[in-house]
# Entry
Amino acid sequence: MRESQQLVFHPFRLDLANGQLWRAAEQLPIRLKTYAVLRYLIDRRERVVGRDELSRAIWPGRVGAEAAPRQCILELRKLLGDSARNPRFIATIGRHGYRFIGRLDATPSLFAPATRMDCDRLDRALGTECVGREAWLSRLAEAWEQARAGRPRTVMLMGPAGIGKSTLATAFVRTVAANRHGWVTCGQCIHQSAGGEAYLALLDALGTLARQDRHGHLASLLDRHAPLWLSQLPALIPPGGEATLRERIQGADPARMPRELIELLEVLTGDEPGVLLLEDLQWATRATLEWLDAWTRRRTSARLLIIGAWRTDDGVLEPLRDPRANEWLREWRWRPAFAVLQLTGLEQTAVQSYLVARLGDAALASSLAPILHGRSGGHPFLMNALVDEWVTRQDLARVDGEWRLRADLDFLFRTD
# Structure
């Protein structure tokens, strides 16, 4: 099995190709939804995942799904031998939700030496996660090569919830990191009340990058080039250095923070190219968008690719907390270093490829593809949910190690 097809957290591993949980050589019995919850938490391990988010993601539109995440967490803790009081893998964060805290043994260092990337084969390296997204992957790979050559690029992935923006972006940056092509980091925008933390997503990204930096390289660069940012990341301040840092930044104009971060990224990517993923930009604060506007205006030689995920609703921008966001987005589209990739539903041929990859049976996939495409519109999240539902109801079942259809095709096509 290729390393890219499994997630290892000793003594367990997730087999991503077959949807299985293993402890050493023993396959553990795990329900599909419980597996989905575990993988969802691992894929978003740099942040807390709320119970409502889990309900929406794993049980979309399901009445009474509010209690389902808790049941899956209980099942996972039993399978993993974990404890709510002294967790090794899944921590309960107050009333906010859950976070995967286990160490992924296969996670590469973000500061490893960069190597050449074979962009023509990138989609193959990603396995089946991004089936049907070859054109989008090619655009990301092209932007990455340009960034590595010293021409920074910003690519905005746009589309409705569940269309695959995060899946596409996460799979791409994971491949960059796994093949040691450069450092990667992610910042998450969240709904904040008035007066929320201005640069939350960018601070989140810097904190994530710092946790992967074993040599304190980033903390040193922050101290030298971005002391105002360092003051917002107390875990990176060396012991006894708080007073000195406060004295250095006393009276400093907070308006210089965007300039500091730009300078930091220019220096950081001088040593090694990088990818910055910003999730849910429709919820970004004005300060974050102002920084992004300043970055896309600047003519710099930084070797950085910024990937943004921006949710839309049927092609229309979500209501934004800042009325200038729409104006900025219109301006950015005209800038040469900026690109918008609009994600839409998959074609029926891609749906069939997805089914072949998931079921391993070309004939069965050919029969089911028109039904799955018709019911989901090629929407990846709905596709997964429908196939999960068929499996749960035993309409699709494994018999002697092979998938078999146990319901009439007309029955599967029904929407009631």
Observations:
- The longest strand covers residues 304-313.
- The longest helix spans residues 134-148.
- The radius of gyration is 22 Å.
